Amino acid sequence: MQRQQLISQRLTQAFAISHLDVINESHNHRSAPNAETHFKCVIVSTDFVGKRAVQRHQAVYALLQDEMAKGLHALALHTYTPEEWAAIEQAPASPACQHKKGG
């Protein structure tokens, strides 16, 4: 199973998700072709109600810690409650990588 699918599956199984985007952004970084090292995750869940951003991120990192040990280099986490998501409906764009090949 590809890492992108694995991340989606684990998040879906662990959280009550109403919106999920798992985007492979490895091509925007100094990575080999077809790398799965850099991901942006937009997660909307009622499980985040009453939790600070750091608590939300800690929960996601705990869920994916074995993937971090296997070469997952970076996660850009955007975690929202349904109410927060309804107010913005779009996660921030990812910044350009300072170390991209040819960049």
TrEMBL record:
Q: Gene Ontology terms, cellular component aspect?
A: cytosol
Look up the record and give one Gene Ontology term from the biological process aspect: DNA-templated transcription
Q: Which organism is it from?
A: Agitococcus lubricus
Q: Which domain of life is it from?
A: Bacteria
UniProt record similarity statement: Belongs to the BolA/IbaG family.
Its recorded name reads BolA protein family transcriptional regulator
